[in-house]
Amino acid sequence: MKLFYRWSRWGLIAALLTVPAIVTAKSVSKATKAPPAKQESKPTPAAAPAKQIVKIVYFSQEVEAPPALSNLDPFIQNKGLVGAELAVADNNTTGQFTGQQYDLQKVIVPVGGDALQAFSHLAGDSSLVVLNLPAETQLKLADSPAAQGKLLFDASSSDDELRAGQCRRNLLHLLPSRAMRADALAQYMLKKRWQKWFLVTGRESADQAFAAAIKRAAKRFGLKLVAEKAWSNDFDARRTAQSDVPVFTQIEDYDVLVVADEQGLFGEYLDYRTWLPRPVIGTQGLVATSWHRTHEQWGAVQLQNRFKDNTGRWMEEADYGAYLAVRAIGEAAVRSKSNQVAPIRDYMLSDKFALQGYKGMPLSFRAWDGQLRQPILLAAPRALVSVAPIEGFLHPKTELDTLGYDQPETGCHFQ
Length: 415
Prior knowledge:
This protein has 415 residues and is an alpha/beta fold. Helices cover 35% and strands 18% of the residues. The chain has ten helices and 15 strands. The protein has helices spanning 2-32, 81-98, 115-120, 135-143, 178-192, 205-220, 237-248, 300-311, 317-336, 341-348; strands at 52-61, 100-109, 128-132, 151-154, 171-173, 196-201, 224-230, 256-260, 280-282, 286-289, 355-356, 362-365, 372-373, 376-380, 383-388. The longest helix has 31 residues, at 2-32. The chain is globular, with a radius of gyration of 36 Å. The N and C termini lie far apart (128 Å).
């Protein structure tokens, strides 16, 4: 009992002595406990930089449907527009990575409308304009006050004068000129040693212009025009097939018959009906063109298929011209990092510019006349025969300058 009492007394004393210590420890713990950390707000993500907008105008005018020459070639209104739209889609694919956005405004003047007036109403910031118009209308637009500060792209004409005495500093050309086409044919004929030509020319001014290009090419490459005739017969297919063509083509020997008939009024009747069994070249038969439905090399088949999926038809030259114009704008805008006319034009006309056109070689603009250098397809109706420039025709800068007017030959002096 004594032992228990002593132990209890000393245990009670020990307990009483430790209570303040415990309380003090709790007080100290509360006093020294760190205040709760303030919850930091997450930083607001920085806004994405605004995209650089590149505005492009596709400017065209509807035309009346010509008389139907064949049910195989239906009339296509607004040819070229789909090519421009396809190129804008391609540009915007690249623009996702370069911070650029391409907007296409379509202005199509109705038949009989005033194209010059419609052009004058374009917004001031619509300074890159793709034209699908006749050559004379393009000149009026290029010379108008509304064209000052704008860069125009000829996507449809092959007129040599637009690249020569009537050239304009603010007008670049996408399709091959008549001189380029004639030179392409001449190179291939020289390679085949078909050097004696019989030229047949239609009545229209365009036919006369193409015939002039053929004569220039013949002289340039040392070919001989053994005969030249103007088509003076009518355009009745049945009569032409039965009698006119054999009589009309009954001349002395020649290697090829060259036809200048850009509207296709009679040229289709000549093949297989000439007095002598000779190939037909020019605007019918074997043609020189920037694009053709038989072209499938260098990735062209993918472009052909994409276009056909969108339209249900083959890509035509005017479609390809508009496509090249919009793609050229995209290429120059990306490289110059600008949406302004001056940097884009300067880059396009520089030696750095290179545009992929699905023809095996990069395309570029000639600084002396604004013409796009490019290979030219030599195609029969259902087959691609060759591509010019033909191997063996050399040039100190690029073989592409063996086609058309080279710098020493140019009649353009806008520089």
